[in-house]
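Internal tracking record. Fields below are filled automatically when a chain is submitted to the structure queue. Please do not edit lines marked as system-generated. If the sequence contains nonstandard residues, flag them in the REMARKS field before resubmitting.
Queue: standard
Priority: normal
Entity type: single polypeptide chain
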Amino acid sequence: MPEKKSGMLDILKGVFKPRKMNSEDIVYQAERVISDYVSRRRNEIICKYKGKKNYVLNVMLVLVSGVLLYCVYRIFS
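SYSTEM-GENERATED OUTPUT FOLLOWS
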């Protein structure tokens, strides 16, 4: 009889134990790997196009400044 009480007490203690961390679950780990890959890839793409955008803006700025300098030169000469 004392074994049954001990078993019941262990069951009750088990109910109040903290659950396992989600990182131990294989599904959670797979989702985490996929989300890390997607965020890293997204950042690479953003940096790639941001660099191109900055390059295009710099070229346009140089061209506009060249046109303005030419116009100023033609007006004052």
